[in-house]
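PROTEIN SPECIFICATION:
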Amino acid sequence: MIYEMNDELAAQILTNMLDNTPADVDVREGTPTYIALAPVADEFALLYSELKAQEEADFIVNESGEVTMYGTKLELFAAAWGEKRKEGGRATGVISLSSAEPIPVPAGTRVYAPATMNVLFETDVDSIATPLGTSVTVTAVYEGSDGNLSSQSITGVVGDLEGMITISNPFETSGGYDEESDEEFAARFLNNRRNEATSGNAAHYRLWATEVAGIEDAYVIPVWNGPNTVKVIVLSSGHNAPTPEKVQEVRTYIESVRPIIGGINPVTVEAAGEVPINISATVVISSSSNIETIRAEYAIAIQTYLESLAFGTEDIVRIVRLQNALLDIEGIIDISSFTLSGGIANILIPAGSVAIKGLVTINV
């Protein structure tokens, strides 16, 4: 029976229960049966109201696929299925410390890139700056992809050592990745519900791979090298190929949870193959436009488009989509030439590969 949600809900439930009582039982107000059923009706009314509210409340996503549950509420909801948000990771790297004379540099000394003052690194061990330079490993203070810096960008030091030692990072820092966003967490949760993972099937291997922090997606190829073999190709949270260390972490985790199967090295884990997308364009811009601003906005548009491409199936980088993204930028009047990786054709991205932004040249 469907009840009307109003102030008489408890009375509706009580009336229905009394009407269904055997005809030879006295159900008039004040009788034992009436007195026994009245508080039960009150409790049922409360429960019915709560269930109705849950039914009418937004799910993790609405009908349009937009996330409608955020933060702690999303985490508590997913926890009922044993799932939790993946944490971020801290970038690591190596810096060189030099000085006119030997100077001790204690572990925990903080260094930074002047262009990104909010990204701090700490030296991992005690070291000594010398005239010839001393290499020391560093780890980002905070989690996040902001810690992935280009070479020769870390030159500042915090504290009393400023002005006494010279710092540089000869190589890029890497391995930093952001905490799983609400959108990423919700998408992974829903995918795991829609694709049942049981008994080591393909969905199970994808689930295990994406449970590792820093892994966004995985493409699974069953029996890729004969019976009882499986290949898992993983994509990092930065939407590019993960580091060898992260690939090994995924491999180790899968080995710890997968069912026992026969064969030698039955599980192969590989990083996604990167397909650089190089763009060269000549544009006509308005007199009030700034070409550097246009380049910066287009870089974001390219990344957004490439991240929308499928990973587990073949997909196509369409030249017209990238041309339209450029034309959509304020200040662009026209495009006089445009090439995609040296040609004018679309680029096929195989399943298990990822298109990444390559060299982008925008001239006027």
